[in-house]
Specification:
It catalyses: 3-(2,3-dihydroxyphenyl)propanoate + O2 = (2Z,4E)-2-hydroxy-6-oxonona-2,4-dienedioate + H(+); (2E)-3-(2,3-dihydroxyphenyl)prop-2-enoate + O2 = (2Z,4E,7E)-2-hydroxy-6-oxonona-2,4,7-trienedioate + H(+). The protein has helices spanning 21-41, 88-100, 115-125, 148-165, 191-199, 205-223, 234-246, 256-263, 270-281, and strands at residues 3-8, 45-50, 65-68, 71-74, 81-84, 106-108, 111-113, 133-138, 169-174, 286-296, 301-310. By secondary structure, it is of the alpha/beta class. It has one domain (3-310): LigB-like (Protocatechuate 4,5-dioxygenase, Chain B), CATH 3.40.830.10. It is globular. The two termini are 14 Å apart. Bound molecules: the ligand O=C(O)CCC(=O)/C=C/C=C(\O)C(=O)O and fe (ii) ion (FE2).
Length: 314
């Protein structure tokens, strides 16, 4: 019952507004190395823990967590669009097993995922449909959110289920670390924005283009130092990565208010990493490697990557 973990930041801005070539090349080298590891491992099942950015999940019904038993990628920004090869019965059994472990999780037979899941799959596997995949949505942008501890426990419960399948499993955490791109908040939103956050599924091409243009403009302003968005916080990011490597239970002490204060509103995406490490931890002691970290203002992101495996497998 082998397991491997890959966690990495994502950005919708890659290919739209890139950092200097040496930085971009370094990121692409790290991504290529991760992909080579995954292809050599040849997983029988990928579980991708990922947030959504008001593309598949809205306030008409916003769960803290949701397992996808069938899913399509919408293809926002430059991410791939199309169906994910989800083993539906296995995903349903996973949800059943998590619920039996006293962790409440929703189940979707028609999940829409965005770049949060799709970019990680493309980077790590070369496409959306290379391996069977179960997407697990973790609400990371739409308050109120579950605690980080709850994300860890969700991951652990999924890890215990995965161990029982006997499959060669890859768990992926997509997102983070400190960052605050211009994802709107419901509190204080105009009627028009509130409607988009509550029921904005399948926007018009013009609506989508306007959203994407706003993000690009925000990245340019942020990089020029002309932005009210939360600054990146490399110290906090590296401390978080260290927790993932050696002190996972310490996340239980990180409150949601402190995450927003120290890392910015979208830093809550770290819960995708926490869930992935939680799943790995269910297999016993593990060894993790910090593959990359750099604050990248062009992508409004404290950008990191780690991989890990059980000690016994190393
Ligand atoms: O509607 C939009 O596109 C709003 C902006 C947005 O979704 C930005 C997302 C950024 C990330 O996913 C990220 O940096 O993690
Ligand atoms: Fe994101």
């Amino acid at each position: 019952m082998p397991i491997r973990l890959e966690c990495l930041s994502h950005t919708p801005l890659q290919g739209y507004f890139d950092p200097a070539p040496d930085v971009l090349n370094e990121v692409e080298r790290v991504q290529a190395a991760a992909r080579a590891r995954v292809l050599a491992y040849d997983p029988e099942l990928v579980v991708v823990f990922a947030p959504d950015h008001y593309n598949g999940f809205f306030y008409d019904l916003m769960p803290p967590f949701c397992i996808g038993a069938a899913a399509d990628s919408i293809g926002d920004y430059k991410s791939l669009a199309g169906p994910l090869p989800v083993p539906g019965a296995l995903a349903r059994d996973m949800a059943q097993s998590v619920l039996a472990a006293d962790i409440d999780v929703a189940l979707s037979w028609r999940m829409q995922v965005d770049h949060g899941a799709a970019q990680a799959l493309e980077v790590l596997t070369g496409g959306l449909d290379r391996f069977p995949v179960i997407p697990v949505f973790i609400n990371s942008v739409a308050p109120p959110m579950a605690t980080l501890r709850r994300a860890r426990l969700l991951g652990e419960a999924i890890g215990r289920f995965l161990a029982r399948t006997g499959k060669r499993v890859l768990v992926v955490g997509s997102g983070g670390i400190s960052h605050e791109p211009p994802v709107p908040l419901l509190a204080g939103a105009s009627d028009e924005v509130a409607e988009r956050l509550i029921a904005g599924r399948n926007p018009t091409p013009e609506g989508r283009a306007a959203r994407q243009a706003r993000t690009l403009a925000a990245a340019k302003a942020f990089t020029a130092g002309d932005s009210g968005l939360h600054p990146l916080n490399p110290e906090w990011d590296l401390a978080f990565m260290e927790k993932m490597a050696s002190e996972l239970l310490a996340v239980d002490g990180m409150t949601n208010d402190a995450i927003t204060r120290d890392g910015g509103r979208s830093a809550h995406e770290i819960r995708a990493w926490v869930a992935a490490f939680g799943a790995l931890s269910a297999y016993g002691p593990y060894r993790a490697t910090n593959d990359f970290y750099r604050p990248i203002p062009e992508w409004i992101a404290g950008f990191g990557a780690m991989h890990a495996a059980p000690v016994a497998a190393a």
